[in-house]
Amino acid sequence: MSAPAADATAWRALRRHGVLLAAWGALVAVFALTATHFLSAATLQTLVGRTPGLLVVAAGMTAVILGGGIDLAVGSVAALAAGVLGIALVDWHWPVAAAVPLAIAVGAVAGLAAGMMTVGLRVPAFLATLGMLEICRGAAYLVTGSRTKYLGGALEPLARPLPALGLPPTILIAAVAVVAVHVLITRTVFGRHLRAVGGNPRAARYAGIDVGRVRITVHVLSGALAGLAAVLATARIGSADPNAGTGLELAAIAAVVIGGTSLAGGAGSCAGSVLGVAVIATLEAGLAHLGASEPIKRIVTGAAIVAAVALDFLERRGREGDGEA
Amino acid sequence: MGCSSRPQEALPGKGAGGDGSRPLVALVMKSLANEFFAAMAAGAKSHQAAAPQRYDLIVNGMRNETDVAEQVGIVEQMVARRAAAIVIAPADSQALVPALARAREAGVLVVNIDNRLDADALRSAGLTVPFVGPDNRAGAKLAGAAVARRLQPGDEVAIVEGIVTADNARQRSLGLADAARDARLVVVDTQSGQWEMEKADGIAAAMLAAHPRLRAILCANDSMALGAAAAIAAAGRREVLVSGFDAIPAVRPLLDDGRLVATVDQHGDRLAVEGIETALAILSGAAAPEDRTTAIDLVTGPDDGAAP
Question: Which one of A318, B7, B122, B144 is CB 3.0 to 4.6 Å from B176, fit for a cystine?
Fold first, then answer.
């Protein structure tokens, strides 16, 4: 990519993020005006405490979608990883330092299975991960005996705010993971290959890229991050519920798409997805503050997703009209 | 009680299909992935295994707790299978009524457990179905009252309810509101946690921030109570009390250290057995097809002297 082209891309990303940031600011303003106590340290603390799981899943989802795939299994994978984490800690008396890597490994193995299915059997990612969604949910029920597992305080230090920072380690871990994924997809050979595969798999193959390997790797990454998300979410709640994480894949996909990553693959960013998570989490918190009914919550959230995507589409079209793209 | 997607189980009991000497009882459940229904099914299976000469048993669960069409299909299959009785925990209080009316026309005895069929729908179908189950409203009121005893009139409380398309969720919401009204507490917020831990955590966190004077969060099941307790711990608002419903094993430590004031045990493992016993008694002519309310007990922590 030549330097001016890179500049143009960076400028577009900046403009896109500016629009999102403004939309998020407007959302905060609306809730601040309509819900007393919305603009408070407590709300911020809740957002920071509750979003680490969604953040890391959305980062993984960004990478998968960038590569032209999709991962529908993340919620079930997280539930399975949380169940295994609970069993390792409570039934096997494993130390945290061993149980946490195990949970992440469980996620990575689930991702590996999905990746192998897409590459080896040539099953589209949508169907392979739909299958894994079911398999992992079933496995989560199996390993937990369909029971919520109480973990005690083993992981609690991860969710308790650090006195010096006022932030819990979970959000710091999530931030490190998101930055790592960002570097991976923007600054490495793997990232360049991933974009190429997402943009045009056939061309990527002709260019000598091992497309299958790229796809398997990105699914392993997404699975491992779902495992990490399970650890972060479980640390806050202190229990592992085999029903947890239902709809997590939809929240993550919504965040990624709101963040401007194209579902067609090849274009997108982690920064956008972080803003997308901020929008989704703010919307959830604000509607709960207002005491909105379940139907209203669903309608408003759905409308917000459609509006964000429409905004992106219009903005792109406008740019094409300017002859810029 | 539970929520969304889960697997299906179809376990024919020994000699199911009926050789004419023993009645075949078909237990039609919601999701067997939900620990409440799993315990119920396990209770029924061991009951049958303990006295296999009395009846044959076939247990069916659904994949998705709210998938009414799937449960209707199972009811039809059980009629085709010539079951003598269908003992059913309906996924929907109204939508199952026509299928059950057809079952009755085919000569199959129907006994309703857990989630009560809608009285109006039954009346318009010209059907009477004996109901065997707990009074969810009274149970929720017990748990709410245990919290109310520690509060003053005028204190603010909030309710986290289940998925209110099911009758048991509505009954529990009513029972929690009853308890609050009787103790003259002010219900400042009611939202659905969709029966889930993480959703309830988000709802409870927002309730805590929006209502700085909140003194209690009354939850319609224990999973949501776990979520509310997490939100309270994260917000450092230890003065806010929590109650649940179901008495799942995971809440025991919270009861012990006071993070959960009360929950109620509706003895799910015995519920299907009581439904089956009622069906067998009606089939043998030993009992009239009448409603039976099953026991529901308050469960509190060790230091709750006020508890019965």
Answer: B144
What ipTM, to 2 d.p.? 0.83
SS3 of residue B255 by DSSP: helix
Residue A120 makes CB contacts below 8 A (sequence gap 6+) with none
Residue A245: list chain B partners with CB under 8 A.
198
A238/B226 CB distance under 8 A: yes
Instruction: Show residues of chain A in contact with B222, CB under 8 Å.
Output: 148
Task: List phi, psi (to 5°) of B13.
Answer: -70, 170
CA distance A117 to A128: 6
Question: Which token pair is B151?
Answer: 């509060």
Distance from CA of A302 to the nearest CA of B (A): 17
- Measured in whole angstroms, the distance separating CA B209 from the mean position of its chain's CA atoms is 30
A243 vs B38, B196, B201: nearest CB: B196
